[in-house]
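User: structure tokens for this one?
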Amino acid sequence: MSTAPVYERRPTGPRHQDFLARHAQVLSIAAFFALMVLLFSTRTDAFLSQINLLNLLRQSAPLLIVAVAMTFVITTGGIDLSVGSTVALVNALVALALQAGIPWPLAVLAMLLLGALVGLIQGWFVAREGIPAFIVTLAGLSILRGVALLLTQGFSIPIDSSNWFVQLGRGWILGMPLPAMVAILVMVLGAVVLASTRFGRYVTAIGANAEAARRAGIGVQRVTMAVYVLTGTAAALAGIIIAARLGSGSSNAAVGFELDVIAAVVLGGTSLMGGRGSILGTCLGGLTIAVIGNGLILAHISPFFTQIVTGLIILAAIWLNTKVFRGGRRQ
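Assistant:
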């Protein structure tokens, strides 16, 4: 009896049907994003105003930056629950550093290195010690937020508005908010790395089958640690931007931020089981969450009701993204 592997033939059909089947989830979140924009633009005149759209891009920049990095982690089959606490720790520490008279370029560099170190430590526990990412980063979530609270005693730390540092959150380049330009740069870089580099292929291969990737000669532990370094560094960058925009640092910043980031990634079609990721889908998912939050506020929905509506809309979108389109492909 032959033991040769059996390969499935690629389904044949019209090119446009193949294209739709291959990009169904990204197309579905794109359609859902367009639907949300249409809905809120008809509900309130202020939604499509230039000021509101630029403000929306500025506010969603930290979410988009961290979501791009989280796409790499989830594509490997992992998860990072500590990004919100990393944002809070960096947010508080950079304010304390500036208050102590440290030059802002040095403070920014130190915070980025701190974020990378946090990611490296967590990645080491996941990759080398084999502890589930959920447990490692859940512990990180508690430890990092606790350190931030200890350092600030729960108080907000003001940042001198005359310091150029605040331009990192409030500045403009070519008519666009500086945080939005940084987010666009990160998204383009993330898309190129995931789709067109050897590192991106390794990330996808590990998520699809880590053991097969190891036997193929891929440094699974090294790549796994690297993706957690990415989320740590991205969370640090987000913490810096938020502190600069608000002109203060607080240990209470970014509460629940990790849930929005994970929702953006999953909405965009990246599989929580690993092996499949899309930076374009993640960007659309992040923008959809930002549009929902912004639109509900402009529609004068109670802030207590906003989280409920946001959660229901996200649940419906994910259900459509998985149930309906998966069923369509089976047919």
